[in-house]
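Reviewer comment 2.1 asked that we show a complete input and output for one of the modelled complexes. We chose the adenosine-5'-triphosphate case, as it is the one discussed in the main text.
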Amino acid sequence: MPDSSASVSYLLKLGELTLKGENRGGFEQVLRRNARSMLKGTDAQLVATDGRYVIHASENASEKIEFTLDHLFGITGWAKTRFCEKTIEAVCKTCVEEARALLANSAGGASGGGIKTFKVEARRTDKRFPLESYGIMAVAGDAVLAGVPALKVDVHKPDAVITVEIREKAYIYADNRKGLRGLPVGTAGRGLLLLSGGIDSPVAGFLMAGRGMSIDAVHFHAYPYTSKEARDKVVRLAEILGLYTLGVRLHIVGFANIQIRIKENAPAAWSTILLRMAMMEAAESIARQERCKCLISGESLSQVASQTIENIRCTESRTSLPILRPLIGMDKESITRIAEKIGAYKTSILPYDDCCVLFSSKHPVIRGDPSEAAAYYEQLEIGSLIEEAVREREEKKRSFVERWHPS
Ligand code: ATP
Ligand code: MG
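Response of the prediction step:
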């Protein structure tokens, strides 16, 4: 453990994991591995206690630790914590220290007025501790009242809650943060995300990562008809998503020739559906090579013409892999809120063309018939062009993404 004079500790709370019965050990193992991997480069040490994890590190690691805990799927919450030996005297003393620090930090804080009221909550996993939870709350509460006269008790609507947890040590904290919840990335296999430059697909990847999926991504561009900036934007989106998924391996596939083939050999109204069919075929080929178990897309029902249920059926006809569409029932506002929360929104709205806009028709087919779609698609004889595009794809390695830190 680092020198205690300049050290910090964090308590991590595991939520849904506790429901996983016999599998729990495996899920926890992945969670620990993910946390340690994200904390690489610091002196942070992660130790497991009953139903909680604790991280100890030196003070200068705190920024990276807090960044990690904000990006780690599988924890319901976390807190920067003090700890002390398990005597009521030590607990009281530490509660007073925590309350003083709270007051000092809040005085000039965003809330302006600072903290005026508090309550103490207590939980006792170690039943050998002589006081029950209620007794701890009462005695520690009195100690804070006596030691920090500026604070008053309010059990209903306190400005701050000081929590005491009696475990293998006594933990005391007031800084209670929400975690991302979900399941640890890497517990549900790998999925291949179709990543455009828009708002939706990074959110789709984030949501599936939250169900435990590792993420590879594929992006189709039409360089030189689309710009280098459009491609760079997608690399950046993959980097942002990678902060939650221990990196994303991004496959960048040139589709210009395919789009020209479609433009020259099929009715304009069908161009977007046919392009999406070709994307699915190429994505399936990459998924099989990279051992991805499914495709993930950002489609949302009826959001645009290509996403009516009829056109979705045409699109998916070129693959036999499951396609996960976590946004299918969500409206744009809810999707946008998540995009903002995960830090992708500002990049997503940068105004660069996606290849889908290129050659797209003003009057697209709205309810495509699958057999008609299949007939047009066959007529394109596009198989070898897709093989070539997949073979010549550019790959951004996972490790490249891991090093990125947002400005
Ligand atoms: P927007 O926020 O503009 O809707 P989007 O990413 O959802 O962005 P759509 O045109 O709605 O774009 O496309 C639906 C889905 O098809 C995307 O979410 C994505 O999964 C996939 N897709 C579209 N274009 C591409 C592309 N160029 N490369 C990879 N996948 C793509
Ligand atoms: Mg969309």
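Residues 402-407 have pLDDT under 50 and may be disordered. We note this here for comparison with the apo prediction described in Section 3.2.
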